[in-house]
Known about the structure:
The chain has ten helices and 14 strands. About 40% of the residues lie in helices and about 20% in strands. The protein has two domains: about 1-170 and about 215-235, NAD(P)-binding Rossmann-like Domain (Rossmann fold), CATH 3.40.50.720; about 180-210 and about 240-275 and about 295-315, UDP-galactose 4-epimerase, domain 1 (Alpha-Beta Complex), CATH 3.90.25.
Amino acid sequence: MRALVTGAAGFAGRHLCAALAAAGHDTLGTGLPGMPPPPAGVAWTDLDVTDGAACRAALAAARPEWIFHLAGFSHVGRSESAPEECLRVNFGGTRALLEACLAAVPRPRVLLVSSPEVYGRMAPGAPPFTEDAPARPATVYGVSKAAAEAAAHHAAARGLEVVILRPFNHIGPGQVEDFVAAAFARQLARIEAGRQEPVLRVGNLSAVRDLCDVRDVVAAYVRAAEGARSGEAYNVTSGRAVSVQELLDELRALARVPVRVEQDPARLRAVDVPVIHGSGEKLLRDTGVRIDLDLRRTLRDVLDYWRATELADAARR
C-alpha cells in the first residue's frame, strides 16, 4: 500500500514509518521543514497540515491509499498556556487535511490519531473507558482532539473513510523528555554519566496512566488500517494502569547508581487528569489486536536510549 504519515518526525511517527517500511509499504513521511531525516526506506516531503493548499498538493503528488494523521500539538500541559495554537493545529490542521482528502482522486483511507483525553476525568472506582463514553474533555488538548474527531465525523458523513484511534499513553525509546518516563530516564542517564547531581526531580507521582509501548501502538495502527471499521473510534490500550510512582520505582531499580528524589513545583501541571484507564476490547474484536505491556523491558529500552544519547553528546564535546 502507499501510505502517507503526517507528523512523521515525531516520536510515534518515526516508529510508525519504520514499521510500515519494514512491512513493505511504500511510505511517505511529512512534517515541518527542518525536521530530522526519516527512517531508512521512507521518503519525505515538507508539509504544514494547517495549509489546505499544501495538503491538496501533497495528496495529488503522492496519491496515498492510507493516511495516518499524527501531526499536531502533542503536549497536554503546554496546551493550557497556548490554547489558540493547540486548537489551530489539532483542529484546524485535521480539518484542512480531511478536506484535502475529500477532494483527492482516489480518496484515501484516513487513520486519525486522537486521544483518550477526549473522555476527561475518570470518576473514582469507575470501569475503564469504552469508546461509547461521552466526550467531556478536562484539558485544552482534550478539547482540541474532540474537535478534530468532530471534523472526522463530518468528513465521514460526506463519504470519506475515516477511523479514529485513541492511543493511551505510550512510551519507548526516542521519546523526548517532555514526557514523564523519558524525563526520569534522561535524568538517570545524566546522573550515571556524572553530568547531574544524584537528585531526580519529579512532578506529580500520584497520576495513573494506561501505558503501552510505542512499538506495539504503531503495530496496532497498521492493523487498524487493514481491518478497523470506517466511521468508528477505537481505544489503543494495554489495559494496564500504572502510576507515575511505579514508573519511578521501576527506573530507579534499573539505574546503576543510587539517587534521591525531590519534587519540583515547575514539573506540576496546572490541569491534570488524575487517572485515565481504558478498555481495548473493541480493537481486539474488530482487528484481533491485543497489546500486552512488558513495563520492565520497555523502561530498560528507554533508559538505554538515553544512556546512548548521553554518550554521544559527551563524545561531541
